[in-house]
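Sequence and fold
=================
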Amino acid sequence: MSLAIGLRGEATLIVSERETAAALGAGGVHVLATPMMINLMENAAWRAVQSQLAEGDTTVGMVVNVRHLAATPVGGHVTATAELVEIDGRRLVFQVSAHDDSGLIGDGTHERVIVHLARFLERVSKR
């Protein structure tokens, strides 16, 4: 495993109707829904570190603390970025942000934890 502070990941999306607040039943507006922005940020964080993990390991999200600052309409292009800023054992902390064609739409922090995928799925199946 070669995790290091400063690893970066990115994820992009062109907003379609299925990613809107209206489609998710939250407010009826046809703009990017907050949960979809968060999903993009989580994906960027996962991408930042996945290739550096040991065979069979992955990360799962455990804390999200973000602000959704601006609305992005259907057809808008959104890019989320994540930078690894802290490593505390298996806990990883990322600075995350999302931008659309007009600028910053969201920012905050996201924490993930490293798990061995097979053991994690086994524990989940017993719940």
Remarks:
- The longest strand covers residues 103-116.
- The first helix runs from residue 34 to 49.
